[in-house]
Every structure is written in structure tokens, then in C-alpha cells.
Amino acid sequence: xxxxxAVKEKMTSLHIEKHPKSICIANYKxxxxxTTITTLLGYYLANKGYxxxxxxxxxxxxxxxxxxxxxxxxxxxxxxxxxxxxxNKWHKATKVKYQEYINAIPDIYAxxxxxxxxxxxxxxxxxxxxxREIVNNESTEYMLYNxxxxxxxxxxxxxxxxxxxxxxxxxxxxxxxxxxSYYMSVTIPDKISVYGMPRLMTWVNQIPSNEKPYxxxxxxxxVNRLGGHEFxxxxxxxxxxxxxxxxxxxxxxxxxxxxxxxxxxxxxPRLDVxxxxxxxxxxxxxxxxxxDRASEQRTVSDLMMTLVKSIENRIAQYAKI
Length: 321
What we know:
Blueprint (H helix, E strand, L loop, with lengths): L4 H9 L8 E5 L7 H14 L4 E5 L5 H5 L14 H5 L1 H4 L12 E2 L9 E4 L5 H14 L2 H15 L6 E5 L6 H9 L2 E6 L3 H14 L9 E10 L10 H15 L4 H7 L4 E6 L2 H8 L20 H21 L1
Parallel strand pairs: 1-5, 1-6, 2-4, 2-5, 6-7, 7-8
Antiparallel strand pairs: 3-4
């Protein structure tokens, strides 16, 4: 069914206010640590006193597993992201009981103000259902986008919403990017992974300007420590310069005024304690080890608080423009 151009223009220009601190964590390249950073960021924002909601939209459900859900219980109930965004919800958005999809974090040491909407292994099937709906009626594409924006607004009692995205352009990822106020990327310091960032930005810049999220920056993950610092190798310096060069040319005026020539939000080192933290399920003893200091090097907690402050500052700067 073809939508008349006048109707399509009206639908695409429809403005719906976004949740003011909703952030998509994305990269067009997988295996760069998006889930690691989303998990840690959620913990540290909540530990600072914010109410934080995590959304797991990756069919691998790594975020849900990282916060302590057992693999056999991840999508066992009907209160997952799959059931929240399934097409039959779009037509009755006012009747959806959004609060029923919020789950407590299983990790007994997690801040109590940190919550999650669980992932589901059948989210990849959800994209097939979304495509079927859009093929049958093109207007449902815009219905999906507007539904997701309204959905995030239903969680306005949360200070921050963090969305862990898969490394692809599935419709749910596109919808969440349009629904969120901001996005940030995570990469590791190698050429292929760094290249995922400009590809992501090219993709995001195709979103209509009234729907487009603003870039917060990029986290350089799993960097090596040298002489007490979290960066310094030739590869890492080259990766950082490549990010500066490629990101700078894709920023809009507002993003340039906030980010300028400093797209890196934080450097997160390659450390065993981070891997242990993510793998410990519902009892994360390693949470306390993130404050351990080796020699003159900064702790994981120091580094994560740097990231938190960078995000706070950039959101505040965007709000002033």
C-alpha cells in the first residue's frame, strides 16, 4: 500500500518530545564491547544516585546475561523487549502496561535504582514481523518509530535510559535511534572496528533532522596501559586520530559546538577484572575489585566516572544550545 506523499510528509514531520536522557549505545561493528560499556555505565550512573533503565534489544541478550539473568530464564516470561515492541502493541499504545516490563537486576550487589527491560532471543524474529507489517502497510513504519518514542517517554521517572543495540540495521535498532535523544559508540583500537564508527554516523545522518539523535562521542575500549596511562601504543594513537579525522567531517553544527575535535569520551583498559565482573552472574564480587589500584594507574571506577562526567557535561551542553 503506497502512502500519499502529503500524508507521508505529515507523518515524518510529526514532532514527539523525546526522553531527555535516552542514549543508544551502538556500532556497526560487533565485538567491540558495547554491552560491557552499557553494563558498566548503568552501574556507575545508578551508583551516583540516578535512576537508570537498561534496554536489551540485541537478540544475543548479552546485556540481560551480564546483569545476572540465567540463560534459560532470559526470555521465559512475556515481559521482554520482544513483547513490548511487537506490532500488535503499536495500535493500542495507550493500553500497554509499560511498567510491567521493568525487571529488577538479579545481581545482589547492583544499585537498587538500576532496572532493566529484558532482551529476548527471538528479537531477530521480531524484525521479520516488523518487515511483514511494513510491507503490508507502509505507514506502520512511522507508527513503529512514534510508538518507540512514546514508549521511552512512559519511563520518564528514570533519569537515564540506556539502549544496548545489535551491530546491524534491523528496524528495532533504527526505531530506538530515532526514539533516543542521544547516541554514543564503542570501539576497540583496530582499523576495522574504528571504521564502524563513520559507517554508523553515515547511517544516523540519513535519519530526518527532526528525528536524529545527537552524538555524545565514542568510548575507546580494551586499550593497553603503558607507563600508568590507558593509551600510548602506535595502534591506539592511530585509532584515536582516525576517529578524530572521520567523525569531525560528519558532525552537524550543534554537534561540532559540543564535541569539537574531541570525540573520545573515555579510554577503558583491557583488564581481567572487567571480564570477571561481567561473567559473575547474580553475585558480582568483582564489583568491589573495580576500585583496586595498580601502581599509579587509575582504577576502573576512576575511568568509568570520567565517562559519566563526560556524558553529563555533553548532555548539559546540548541542553544549552
